[in-house]
Amino acid sequence: MNKLEDFNPSNNSLEGKVILITGAGSGIGRALSIKFSQMGANLILLSRDLGKLENVYEEIIKEGHKEPLIHSMDFENPVEENFLVVKEAIEEKYGKLDGLLNNAGFLGDKSPLDQYKYSLWKKVFNINVDSTFLLTKALMPLLKNSDMGSIIFTSSGVGKKGKAYWGAYAISKFATEGMMQVFADELENTSNLRINCVNPGAVRTKMREAAYPAEDPNSNPPPEQILNLYIFLMSDESKEINGQSINAQ
User: Is position 169 annotated as part of the catalytic site?
Assistant: First the structure.
């Protein structure tokens, strides 16, 4: 089985897998952290906001699931050595990493590109591109230690077809798509890894509200309703899916 439409996740679909999630404190990252823990995963949760991570940690523990590792990480000012610290902590505890979900992201401003502030451009790229690259690079040896590893990058519709006023965010998502494709092509025949992109689409999150302030948030599904694709790509059922950019809805 390697088709999403045939996938029926169970409570042990991710049993024993070691998975790292960025942007785990809120939105889709938070929902996936809770869901993955319910399916038996050992989690490493990263976010800028330690308080939000602690809330997710407490909910996972309250439900009786495996204790996650939580780590506050500054993606806005990436330093390569800081990502290696995360790698070393995972290596010491688990010796491998089965899944990496690059979920953290920053919208920036919606404005004409020729008026875009360079300082904000750099912030968007530091969070959406540079930190994603540095984390993936740092964790690659552990991912290669997995019998069947999966990396998920977070894409967007505006990262596939340019859209006016989406500025640095859109261009950063084009870069993300490219990063996924290069990693997928390089590793397809030399490792057990599969690398794909997910476009979550319109979801009821703070980022969506910031991007579409006039939109009724209730017109979009909550994060909990769009998780099946992520579960599928992290599970062994997706072992033949590589180098794809897939819409979650």
Answer: yes
Q: Which helix (H) or strand (E) holds 197?
A: strand 194-199
Point out the catalytic residue in the list 94, 169, 212, 230.
169
Judged on CB neighbours under 10 Å (0-12, 13-18, 19+), 112 is exposed
Residue 246: CB atoms within 10 Å: 16
Copy the structure tokens of residue 10.
Answer: 């169970």
Identify the structural domains of the chain with CATH numbers, from first to last: 4-247 (3.40.50.720)
Q: In what order do the strands lie in the sheet with 245-247?
A: 69-72, 42-47, 18-22, 99-102, 150-154, 194-199, 245-247
pLDDT at position 2: 54
Q: With contact defined as beta carbons under 8 Å apart, do 30 and 230 qualify?
A: no
Give φ, ψ of 203 to 5 degrees.
-130, 150
Structure-token match 């009821």, residue found? 204
- Let me know: does 208 contact 202? Beta carbons within 8 Å: yes
User: pLDDT digits over 134-187, tens only?
Assistant: 999 999 999 999 999 999 999 999 999 999 999 999 999 999 999 999 999 999
